[in-house]
Amino acid sequence: MNKVRLEDVSERGSSNLAQKDIEGIDGNYPIYGASGYIGNVDFYHQEDEYIAVVKDGAGVGRTMFLPAKSSVIGTLQYIIPKGSIFPKYLYYAVKKLNLARYNTGTTIPHIYYKDYKKETFCLPDEFEQRKVVVILETVEKVIEEQQQELLELDNLIKSRFVEMFGTLQDNRNRYDIVAIEEVCSMIKDGTHQTPTYTEDTENGYKFLSSKDVMTQKIDWTDVKYIPSELHEKLYATIHPRRNDILMSKNGVNYGVAAINDTDEVFDIYVSLALLRPTEVIDPVYFRCVINNPDTKRQFDGSIKGIGVPNLHLGEIKKTKILLPPLELQNQFADFVTQTTKLKFEIQKSLDETQTLMDALMQEYFG
């Protein structure tokens, strides 16, 4: 099978549109930005289907397949098919190239077509291209459906929370409203010193930061390790235990909470706060109420720092939450536990489907 360079089957196109340029414009033609569809305008820049790649900022390298008679703003790069390549085949080929690795920015990440245009991939005849696209579209549709199922279960938990407990503004059942410090026996953050890491995973100790709780559960797949001497020093000051809440307090994704549902021995960085619940609050309920929009709004109003956002422990301590009777908290926690089991099964299927997709992409594009 022939291999081609990206520049052989595509050409670059640029947009000089900014978001502000399309404000107040309405029309029949869609326009897209780094996060996807923005709205409709009264013009379009591309007559036919094309590929767009995020070239600046967050999400750099992300690839989109966009419809005819549409446009993008300047944070995206047009990649326009040419020759005998089927547009949707080019889309999957570009996705396989993983263009994010061409990031050259330090403050604002960006990539350039000139740096990746010589990337190669397999190009069969048009009949085979279309066959490949049908197969990949089918698998991709399954992935999207499974992702949607997970999102709907997350929304179900959020809806159940409001149904059972209301909100701080609509406390129809007149539950107690307390400060977070009133339901914790400890609120501390991790070490403020940047640690020395080790590659010795056998003798080192796990070291968690805010990136490891972004899914509202601890993600152990990419944790760092620190030497045993440093661990002993840190562990003497703060030693996490089962049912502690770990909450991100630094960076753009502040305020995300997860439960330590293991007996793992580990240490934490300053970007994490450890909240140890007392017997008056169920840990599962506590995690959900911290991740609740009511709490996030309070965090947003308390944030410190001009550069990197930072939630101070004092602000966390005085944040208000609903404290319903423990029996109701436990009922809600049981519901969350059962829903989480279902999510686990769906996630397992999703991982298997994604593995299949990855294998097919490797087979087709090399």
Explained architecture:
This protein is α+β, with helices and mostly antiparallel strands. It is built from 9 helices and 18 strands. Strands 2-8-5-6 form a 4-stranded antiparallel β-sheet. Strands 11-17-14-15 form a 4-stranded antiparallel β-sheet, with helices on one face. A 3-stranded mixed β-sheet has the order 4-3-7, with no helix packed on it. The longest helix has 40 residues. The chain is globular.
Question: What keywords describe this structure?
Answer:
366 residues; alpha+beta; four-stranded antiparallel beta sheet; 18 strands; 20% strand
Strand-pairing-aware structural class: alpha+beta
Strand order of the largest sheet: 2-8-5-6
Overall body shape: globular
In whole angstroms, how far apart are the ends?
10 Å
User: Helical residue percent?
Assistant: 25-40%
Poorly predicted spans:
none
Number of helices: 9
- C-alpha Rg (nearest Å): 24 Å
Largest sheet: 4 strands, antiparallel
Task: Compile the SSE list and pairings.
Elements: E1 3-5, H1 6-9, E2 10-13, E3 29-33, E4 36-41, E5 50-54, E6 63-66, E7 71-72, E8 76-81, H2 87-96, H3 113-116, E9 120-122, H4 126-165, E10 176-179, E11 184-189, E12 205-208, E13 224-226, H5 228-235, E14 245-248, E15 257-259, E16 266-268, E17 272-277, H6 283-290, H7 293-302, H8 313-318, E18 320-323, H9 326-365
Parallel strand pairs: 3-7, 12-16
Antiparallel strand pairs: 1-9, 2-8, 3-4, 5-6, 5-8, 10-18, 11-17, 12-13, 14-15, 14-17
